Amino acid sequence: MSQILAIASTTLGEAIRRRVLLIILMVGLAFLIISPSLNQLTPRGERMVLIQMTLGILKITSAILAVTLTVYLLPNEVERRTIYTILSKPVQRYQFLLGKFFGSVGALTLMIGMMTLVLLVAFVIQQQTFDMKDLGPIIRSSIMLVFQMSLLAAVAMFFSTFVTPVVNFFLTGLVFVFGTLLNPLFEALGERGNQPAMQVITKIAHYAVPNFSTLDISTNAASEAGTRIGGSELVYMTQGMLYALAYIGILLILSVLVFDRKEV
Amino acid sequence: MPTAIKTENLTKTYRTRSGSVNVVDNLNIEVEEGEIYGFLGPNGAGKTSTIKMLLGISYPSSGQAWLLGKEVGDMEIHRKISYLPEKPYYYEHMTGMEILNFYAKLFNIGPAERAAKATALLEKVNLASDGAKTISQYSKGMQQRIGLAQSLLNDPVLLFLDEPTAGLDPIAHVEIRDLILQMRDEGKTVFISSHELSDVERICDRVAILNKGKVEQQGKLDDLLKGGRIEIQAEGVPDGAVDSLRTDGVIVSNHGGRLIIDAPDSAGSDGFLDAIRTAGGRVISVIPRRKRLEDLFVETVTRATERIKREDAR
């Protein structure tokens, strides 16, 4: 365990110093700071539009950060030969991989946390009130975003065990878009499709690709209903977290199996 | 002497578009505990591939290897061995002290012991005053020294050093060489892959020369470098006596009255000295010329390359 923690903390330390990640983070923060003022441009200056827009920015920035951070994690270690000094110590390959993953999740959590904080401050300044009724849904959305991005990082980590960073970038991006936009459609087709063959195919597609939209509660957060946390929302959030953890677990097991036999 | 490293027909094959290539081909070596073993070969000879297999970083295609009596891959062995890769990179945002702390954590060394070990090792590699500097501020020599320090954290029994002195300035070069000798004095086994043949010749007990994945020569340096030559210079030797000095493998040349006899050391010098004196000549100098490792290396690799060419032509 101490090996995993040591590798994770080093990965976290390195990630928060990577220039490219800091630039993406800065751009995201800049958008989050100016976005409340753009609210005046919307027809009715609605609170819903503002929350959805800012959460959208947060999600896109986080996704770019997650992919950029994770696709290079393993290849960089091999290219710079740091992996050799680490694996020549009493460190198993699975410990190395888990350490890298948890380190990147830690960095993502930190960055999402920082963006959420900035978003909350900007929101309070723009609304000129401090009301948990408004801020609560944003915080809950951000918590779910951490799980969503951890899942995306696990996807990128899995691909990085056998493809190059550039291919990984596109594959992970594709899985994210597919899992966000098309998975709900496949779920519906799998249940209500007319042809049995099509039902099977769409069901396989539904289960093979993680459904990122399940973890997205930004629409709910923006609606009036989302302003108060009810029992059903808590259940939904818990289910979403468990869903993400299950997929992350499966992806990490697959990553370990591939990485264990990989020539480095 | 117990064996520190043993390989039996160790082979690593890579598939290429044109077929497959053995980067390590039926390698059989034995390294005894407490010796410095030089693992030599031109670029692409399979040195790093062999080290990676021995460390369990890469998997052999066939054959077996043992470290300290246990089969390669046994995690317990990793507590007793250590590795300094060629051109190592360390996380640049970390200080020298943090790097040692990080690697010590990988051995589950407790915080107090970690701090004590890191301080002692920084002292040992002459980085005591630079422990708080980040790696990005370190020169190449300092990075190599911090690399050596990290490789000593677990007080290893067996060390693998891949090109430990490559690209270093003469001062850093000598410092690293002295540290390696110090390790042998402490009873450690050191396995060095290097192109710095003068270093290898000075510090190694035994060597193996690898070419295209195959061991072409291996043995004690003293044995391998036997067969040097003796150069005798004399003057006043009458022309009539010179011919009697020309025997098999002996080159005699006259440089303005000064006679230079270049003979294999197996011929001995006594016979030549007696002949010169009997003929009324005067011996100026007798210089034994030891065969250099560089000569042996070039000779071995050239011979092996020519043999491979002949085999390919058939």
Main features:
heterodimer, A: 264 residues, mainly alpha, 80% helix, globular, B: 314 residues, alpha/beta, Rossmann fold, Alpha-Beta Plaits, 2 domains, six-stranded mixed beta sheet, five-stranded antiparallel beta sheet, 10 helices, 34% helix
Query: How would you spell out the order of helices and strands of chain B?
Result: EEEEHEEEHHHEHEHEEHEHEEHEH
Low-confidence stretches of chain A: none
Strand percentage of chain B, roughly?
Answer: 25-35%
Give me the secondary-structure category of chain A. mainly alpha
> Which geometry of chain B do the CA atoms define?
globular
- Which architecture of the largest domain in chain B would the CATH scheme give at its second level? 3-Layer(aba) Sandwich
Strand order of the largest sheet of chain B: 7-8-9-4-10-11
What characterizes the major β-sheet of chain A?
none
Order of helices and strands of chain A: HHHHHHHHHHH
Q: Give the DSSP E fraction of chain A (strand runs of 2 or more residues).
A: under 5%
User: How far do the termini of chain A sit from each other?
Assistant: 23 Å
What is the CATH topology descriptor of the largest domain in chain B?
Rossmann fold
Q: Can you summarize the main beta sheet of chain B?
A: 6 strands, mixed
- CATH superfamily of the largest domain in chain B, called what? P-loop containing nucleotide triphosphate hydrolases
